Amino acid sequence: MTDSILGFLRANGEQLDVDMASSLDIPIAELRDEVARLASSGDLICCRVTRFIDGRKIEGTSCRLSCDPPTPARGRKPGVKKTDDNNETNNY
């Protein structure tokens, strides 16, 4: 079961535990036990999440591989300042 969970996360990235259980056809209780074991060994990083999908509240555990950092967000990053060409040419 460990190999199927790790392989699924390698192929699909970060996933909720209920989505993994339904995709891998594993009972949710068994999957949660295995995910807890993998998280304690350092293979997975897990956190409790609450999502709202179509107005429904869904609570679960989000899991990802510990060696798979999330992709950086697009756009400007905090602390990065735009260079202003006018300030460079004006000497007051």
Molecular structure report:
The chain is an alpha+beta fold. The chain has helices spanning 2-12, 17-24, 28-41, 85-89, and strands at 15-16, 44-53, 56-65. The protein has a 3-stranded antiparallel β-sheet. Helix 2 (17-24) crosses helix 3 (28-41). Residues 64-92 are annotated as: Disordered.
Overview features:
92 residues, alpha+beta, 4 helices, extended, Transcriptional regulator
Question: What name is given to the CATH topology?
Answer: Arc Repressor Mutant, subunit A
Number of helices: 4
Number of domains: 1
Strand content: 15-25%
Terminal CA distance: 70 Å
Strand order of the largest sheet: 1-3-2
| CATH class descriptor name | Mainly Alpha
Topology as a string of helices (H) and strands (E): HEHHEEH
What value does the Rg take, in angstroms? 21 Å
Find the CATH superfamily. Answer: Winged helix-like DNA-binding domain superfamily/Winged helix DNA-binding domain
> In CATH terms, what is the architecture?
Orthogonal Bundle
Structural class by sheet pairing and helices: alpha+beta
Q: Helical percent range? A: 40-55%
Protein name: Transcriptional regulator
Region (Disordered): 64-92
